[in-house]
Amino acid sequence: MNKLDKLNMNVTAAIGKVIDAQRELANAELAIANETSPASMEGRIARRGAIMAARDAGLDDRVKELLKTFLAESGVDEKFSAELKALASK
């Protein structure tokens, strides 16, 4: 194995760690979202974070599921709804 192959393996391993971290972050943010109101600042931050982390991890189905769940909650106004949709589509 040459040096470039080793470096490429390191990059691949690092990408895997980032994706795992994004999944863990999405789960942590969802746990906070489940304990907070979407009308609260903390609840809004958690919902944004859950969608962004799932999106960044490439979990498209999870993003759609989270978006559907969050948009169905009472206390989600039009402005926040539009914000979540925009985050999900990036």
Give an account of the 3D structure.
The protein is mostly helical. The protein has one domain. The chain is built from four helices and no strands. The protein has helices spanning 3-35, 41-56, 60-71, 78-89. Helix 2 (41-56) packs antiparallel against helix 3 (60-71). The longest helix has 33 residues, at 3-35. It is elongated, with a radius of gyration of 16 Å. The mean pLDDT is 93.
Structure at a glance:
With 90 residues, this protein is mainly alpha-helical. It has four helices and no strands.
Question: What are the main properties of this structure?
Answer:
90 residues, mainly alpha
Summarize the topology.
Elements: H1 3-35, H2 41-56, H3 60-71, H4 78-89
Helix pairs in contact: 1-2, 2-3, 2-4, 3-4
Would you count the extended β strands for me? 0
**Residue share in β-strands:** under 5%
Taking all residues together, what is the mean pLDDT? 93
Low-confidence parts lasting 5 or more residues at pLDDT below 50? Answer: none
